[in-house]
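Notes to self after the Tuesday call (sharing in case useful).
The group wants a holo model before anyone commits to mutagenesis around the pocket. I volunteered. Ligand is S-adenosylmethionine. Logging inputs and output together so the record is complete.
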Amino acid sequence: MGAELDKASIEKAYARWAPVYDFVFDSVMSTGRKEAVAAAERCGPRILDVGAGTGLEFPYFSPATELTAVDLSEAMLRKAKERVERERIAAVRGILVMDATRLAFEDGVFDAVVAPYVLTVVPEPERTLDELMRVVRPGGEVVLVNHIGAETGPLAAVEGWLAKRTKDLGWRPEFPWSRVGDWLDARPSARLLERRTLAPLGLFTLIRIAKRIGAD
Ligand SMILES: C[S@@+](CC[C@H](N)C(=O)[O-])C[C@H]1O[C@@H](n2cnc3c(N)ncnc32)[C@H](O)[C@@H]1O
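Result:
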């Protein structure tokens, strides 16, 4: 098991990643961003993007969407703000430094919450999922994209080795499905709608979770 992440190591890691993040992670992870945005926009216009980073998903949102974006890292959000100005992205209504485990929003105010490539990065994934579900309206969706760790074989061995560098990398190379599955089992208000692997090579998984109507 790798070292656990904490907020200080996240901020440090992403201050280092910010200048080169787009160069390294733009095209390889673009399918997941597009799919997450499309799924969220089917729920309605009020969308929260948690862990928006440099805003690589922003260009996929329609101008009719009212997007609020949050992230823990000021360095990443500076790049996101530059993108909004440079590319004149109309959907983005607000960009805020905020911790995903303590969202400063009322319950149920968003039609959907997207968090592409974030759950394996946050210090407390289960608490983060609780917060994402809290701010989405009943009938709305939480849409995640993540690398779910291999359970066996050579990839599992590589991920186990990489996990020793978790704090430096700023994400967990090992992230078993059970972390989401166990959380779902304990939350009757949450229903798994979809779990689908994506290009390239099935490396990433799109996860759609609905908040049941009638749930708080
Ligand atoms: C791998 S990046 C993903 C960025 C973007 N969504 C994308 O698709 O490129 C993960 C982001 O999650 C942010 N993050 C990590 N922990 C967080 C937390 N507790 N609250 C808010 N953002 C967090 C990091 O600062 C980083 O910008």
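Two things stood out.
The longest strand covers residues 136-146.
The mean pLDDT is 92.
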